Amino acid sequence: MIFTVHHVSFTNDGREIIRSKDYDQPTLSVGRGPSCDIALPDVSVPLDHARITANADGTISVDAIAGAPFMANGRSVTTLKIGRGDGAVINFGSHEFIISRTAEDVAIRVERKSAVADSSEAKDSKFVFSLGKAGGKMRLPAWILVVTILATLLVWPIWTWSNFHMAKSRADTFHADQSWSSGKLSLGHASLAKDCQACHENAFESVRDSSCVACHTKVHDHADPKSLMGAKGEPNPFRQVLNATSRMFNRPENSCVDCHMEHEGAVSAPPTP
Question: Domain boundary at 102, 122, 142, which?
Answer without folding.
Answer: 122
